[in-house]
Structures are given as structure tokens and as C-alpha cells.
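dumping the sequnces here before i forget
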Amino acid sequence: MEHHSNPRPPWLEAECIARESYGKLVALLAAEFRDVAAAEDAVSEALVAALTHWPEQGIPNSPEGWLITVARHRFLDEARRTARQSKLLDALTSSELPQPFSIPDRRLALLFVCAHPAIDPAARAPLILQTVLGFGADRISQAFLVSPASMAQRLVRAKRKIRDAAVPFQIPERSEMPERLEPVLDALYACYTEGWSTPLEGVQRNDLTREAIWLSRLLVELCPESAEALGLLALVLYLDARSAARRSDLGDYIPLSEQDPALWNPDLLDEAESLLLHASRLGSPGRYQFEAAIQSAHIARRHSGQTDWASILAFYDALLQYAPNPVVLINRSVALAHVHGAAMALKSLAELEGDPRIGEYQPYWAAKANLHDQLGETQHAELAYTRAIGLASDPAVRRFLIERLGAGNKSFD
Amino acid sequence: MQYLLLLYGDEKLSAKMTPEELGHTMGAYRAYTSALQDSGVYIGGNPLQSTETATCVRGAGNQARVADGPYAETKEQLGGYYLIDAPNLDAALEWAKRCPASEHGCVEVRPIRVFTAEEMNGASQQSAPALA
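..and the predicted 3d for all of it:
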């Protein structure tokens, strides 16, 4: 916690606490009430109460404790009014509740609840954003390109399932940890890529990358010995370190191999490198560590001046064992072309032909076009570039692809 | 917390079982049922006759139409159920994973709905049953 020479005004204090403590309070109360939606409502009401009480009566000694007490009362009142969960009500009123001065951090359990295998995968990342960070459904819907109504419905449905099916607020046992951690990591990574893969114009979505990093840091804080959690944090830091280099001053897309290393953030890269090293020493390799290792190999040219494609290819081969999906295969083909030539890389992409997932997947067509281009197969390249251009949603990427197409075919302009 | 485990599988495959395979399957279910009972989670359970024996009734009283056949034609059919009492979903899912039906078919886990006092009061004020 930071120390301020000037005490913050109460309204600001309430806002800061809301930002810093929201997830912690919701996590604690959701576990107590066994109901995420009820915990969110109670915490929101307590925060509203704080905004009216604190400016008049001063900020309490333990602001979080004050909020918890108020939130619990709100929940109990509501539970009595609706005579809901009478057994739970007895338990809550009679049992020893945690004292406000030692507020346990249940956010990890909440992350596992939100990314439980029984929860709709499409709801997991949004649910984490809402319960741990307090994002509103409309803001989340903008980030995930879903209508606010259907996002709200998805979130309500997930919370109802957590309550009615009694998804437990427990940290999984050690033996199940790897299996249960995976969807949590996937949800956080989905959160990051959602923010990353969108045009920089979208300020809201940029936010999403920051929050994903914050949550990944939290996960590492809560599971310091999880190699994959460290791997994920390293991965998102590598990506974030390069964010200023991904676009030219004119907003044009710049592929990784052509980025200026001087524009990469050296502090973030150093942090990512040391996290990845720490992860690798734990001796339990996984998808996110290899994803991070690929990034690490790419950015090594900031010192060496050269890209070590052979290592990158080796990391892709390893990654393919953990994540055998078209996206990895497509990215691997780029490294394969550098090491063994474009013809070999095209052959590896042929495996994907007929896969329904790649028909509308722009990076597949861009990679294929580039490989045909390298082989001087102009007609094939043109067809694939045209397809990729038609599928591109980022205007900067579209401009980049149009330029590439133009470079191979002068008559295009 | 009570959960209903609904056991789905391809009944054509079970109909084709050799006596030896049938014996193995029966043994597996006997062992599973005893494990549920020994752990104190078992409330009830039964296998069902095939969907060929199913009859559907739709509409009440004079309007009732009776028709041969199951509610829906599906690739896998409901072949039995268990009603269990487990502390939470994870515990219920653990039991579902142990169920012999999950090996070749699918076990659907559904929490039993308990009406709250409010819902019960609301329902009793209406003249007609609340179930639609």
C-alpha cells in the first residue's frame, strides 16, 4: 500500500479502495454466501454506502473491514427478506466470521471458480473480469465484441450455475492443480490477446491487456511455484514490451521480424526473461513457457542482432506437443521457412487444408501467401493475399497485406 | 446437495453385447453402486428399459395424446440414473467420472432443485401448479 503525505479525500479513498479491494471483497463474500452475484451486489451496495458515510464520519480504521461488515449485513437482510437459503443464513449468523483485521485473500479460489471446467469457456474470461476487477457487462461486451445483452446473459447464466450447481470455492488439490490451472491461464491469456489483437484505436481494449497483466501478476503472487503461471506472466510481458514497436508513426503494422528493438521496453523484457528462467528451473514445462521461450528467442536479437530461427523452430516443435492447434502450426511454418525453406513450410501447411477452422483465419492465408511469394509462385500468392485481405479486421494489417500484394504484382495499384 | 446422474449411451451397442461383455458391465455397475453406498452418497438409482419401450403422453384429460416412442430421437439414450448426495459439484463430478457409463457414453450431472421458502409461498398463492 502506498503512503500519501496528504490524506486522500474520502470519495477518492472509497474509489481507490473499490479499485484495489473489489475482487478481494467479492471473493471473500462469494465463498461465504456461495453466490457470486449476491456477493457482487452486497459489495457494490457497501461501496455506495461508503461514499455517503465516509465524507461525513471520516474514513474508518479498517476500510475493508467496514465494507465487509456492511456488505454482510446487506446480504443477510436480503436473505431474510426472501427467506432464501435458510440453512446458510443460520450458519452465517451463528458461526465465527473472519475478523475484518485479518482479511483472507480468496481471489485465487474465485479465479478457479470462474474458470471451472463446468463453466462455459466463453464465459470464463469475462466472468473473471467482472468478479475480480468489477468490470461492467457493457464494458466487457465491447471488449469481446458481443452485444451487451448476450454478454449479460452469459454472465448471469454462469453465476446462476455456480450457485445452483454448488461449484465449490476451493483451491484445487495439488494433484489436480495442473489440470485446473490450465483454464485459468487460458482465460487470462484470452483476456490479453483480446486486447492485443485489436486496433490500437480501441482504448477500451488496450485496457484489457493491462488488466490481464495485473491478473497474471496476481496469479503468480498467489501460486509462486507454478511454472506455467510464471510462463504466462513472462509471455504477456514479452508481448507488452513490444507494443510500441508494432505500429509505425503512421499507424502501419510492423511484423515482429521488422520491428526496431530500440522501441522495445527493456525493463519489461528483463523481467520477462528472469520470470521465464525461474519457471524453467521448476522443471515442469508447459504451453505457456514454450510460448514465452519463442518470444525470448525472438527478442534475443536486441543484443545479438540476429534471429536464431533454429531455436525458434525447436520451441515451436515443443509447443506443438502441448498445444496441437492450427494457430501454432501456422506460426511454426514461418520459422520452418527460415530454417528449411518455404517449400517445406508450405508442405507443413498442407496438413491444414480442409480444416474448417482455417477457412476464415486470416493469419493462415497471410502466411500461405508469403510462402508462395518467397517461391515466386505469384498467382498462388495473389490468391492467398486477396483472401487474407478480405478476412483482415485490423485496418493496419489490411494495409500491410495490400502493400505486400502490390510488391509482388505491380499492376495492383 | 443432491445431484441426479443421468446415464446416456448408445443402446444399440448395449443390445449387441455378448453374454461375457454383459457380465463385465453388470459387474462394473454392481461395484460402482456398492462404492456409492459405502461412501454414504447413494440415495437411489435404476437402469431403464430401452427407448423402444417408451411411451409419451402429451395433453391432459380428454386432450391427452398417447404416442409410442421416446421424447426425442437421439444418438445416445437415457439408460439409467443415480440420485446421490454430494457436498458440491466437484464431488459429484468425481462420482460421475467413476461411473461405468462415462467410459463409452456420457453422464450428465444435474443438481436437484430445492425451492426456497419464497418460491414455495409464491407457488401456494397461485391456484394452478407453477410447473409448466
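The longest strand of chain B covers residues 77-85.
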